[in-house]
Structures
1.
Amino acid sequence: MRVLIPFLFVFFAASSFAAELVPLRHNEHLGARVQANELPDGFRRDLTSGLTNRLMIRVTLHRATQQLHTRSVQIAVRYDLWDEKFIVTTQLDGVGADTVDLTDVQQVIQRLQEIRLPELFSMSAVPADSDVTMRAVVLLNPIDRERMDAIREWVAQNSNRSSLDPAGVLGAGDMSVSNAIFNRIFEQYASGSDLASAWQRTLTTKPFRAHEMPKEAR
């Protein structure tokens, strides 16, 4: 667990993620585009750490207060230290949909600043005579419930200052940050979430008529 605190600091080092969710129609599918103006502070550095970074996106389709459909998207970015390239893999509902190799960190940033998800919902499953909305919950490097339970146990066993920082490496500010991270994650699990992250954003489209939208050329 010695690596736990630095690992969680990656989550906390995030500035505002000014993003917008835009619906799109591609062939006979309803999709979405996540347009982001800014990624978390330090994310560019984290990409070359050798660890796999994951962006999880849960997209739901709604008619008024009724949830109609949901899809889960995972975008994993791994830096191959040997070949000096980034491997970006996109999965839809746990199935590998697309893998690309990128040679420059800026290419990865640009790809994540505008994420196209063209085939989320079949148009045949989308109401044709009423407005709908899409909602996306975006999480960076989420922690699943099993790992969170292990972290919770570790925190309980190391709840005092001397146990968490026996060498006195962390200052009072750092300890405050780590406590805030744990509290934020624990609150998400208390509300019944299956995944939790210290960094997350929720985006919602304006109401729209999917069958009246023009089809995108690509």
2.
Amino acid sequence: MNFLEWLGYKVFGNSLLAWGSGVALIVGAWIVLGIVRRVLRKRLADLGERRGFKPVQIAAHTVAQTKGWFLLLAAVAIGSQTWVLAPPAHSLLTIVLTVGLLLQVGLWATAALDVSLRLRRELQMQEHPEAVAAMDVLGFVIRLIVWTIVVLVILDNLGIEITALIAGLGIGGVAVALATQNILGDLFASLSIVLDKPFVVGDFLSIGEFLGNVEKVGLKTTRVRSLSGEQLIFSNNDLLNSRIRNFGRMFQRRVVFTVGVTYQTPAEKLRSIPNIIRDAVEAHEKVRFDRAHFHRYGDFALIFETVYFVLSPDYNHYMDIQQNVNLTVFERFAEEGIDFAYPTQTIHFAGDSRMPEARMHP
């Protein structure tokens, strides 16, 4: 048998030449498709980064999620056109190609969704922080719908009756719901957080003994970055059952502080103290003075209580103002000859008139 006759030798209905041509075409198509994917991804990424055009950025990320196995299946679909396949083999190849295409479509859809939500999330963090958690939940729901559709279409192509399957899933879903009450409780709690918005990403919360900024509201947990740097993770259901103090919703801060002066302070100087404190407070912007009064007689001091409002939720801004108020009051008291009180105790000894008073300063 010469070489030409050998090439014409048939195996499974196709000559060796046809088999070889098909394999060569598959390898060539796979290489070309890989090069096209790489070039297209690079061009789109460069264009999206240079111009900041969001649809191009989404397209670049979507193309990057094109898998190598899908390119191989596409190459097989091209190369197999040179073969004459038996009906069973042709049906099997069609099913494999269809399933591969559906899986890749699901990957493309979720990739486009992820990058779209990420870009949208970055924008919302600056303009509408309260919408970030809603977007996270929406992204999960859309991904769940996409993959549910993909799986159902794949099962339908495999010849499985999906109507009966859906009915069975409905019955099984009741059992699953009973077995996963805690998970579902956290899921519904996350929906409550999204819809009711007791707090949003970026808010500063006090939860029991814990303090921190909300970083992410997930489907099961909420992540909070504490003041000391570590990440705190709370179950959504437990979090909503806790007493939460949301400092992120604070529009102004009420400040109460006291000053104690000695009992030896003259009455005319006592009358001037509220005005001294008032002047010290009103010297600042974004401040509303409320009151300053001689509050009570203390154990070792005459107590003056002051209340004012800082018209900003920023804690550092409040501390800067309070520090300046304290320094100003200290300076004015020194000028007026008013002494601050400190803990003292006077002991009187009975029965000895010669014994002078003794003062103890603990």
3.
Amino acid sequence: MREKGNRGEALAVQFLEKKLYKIVHRNWHCRWGEIDIIADDSGMLVFVEVKSAGSKKFGNPIERVDIRKQRRIIKTAMQYILENYTEEVPLRFDVIAIDMSDSTICHIPDAFAVEEEMQ
């Protein structure tokens, strides 16, 4: 399972680098969770959740980034910012879904946002 995830993340990194994103961290984790990829997109800090699937038999991998998963990613991202930045930084949350059967990549920039009550 982790091997498929690693391959998916490597494909996602290649995809982002071709779009001129600068990869800042991979698999950054703290007690709240893990961020698959943290990248810089022209000054915008981007937290990327990568979902890989061998097929669409169990549905679109993007659907696995439910509200609970989003909240965990946001909480982890806030911890990252707290540890690494002293000033406010523009940020967004992207999701990349990869169909490993044909290496199709679906990138959703700004897939979800920080809820007001979490700020």
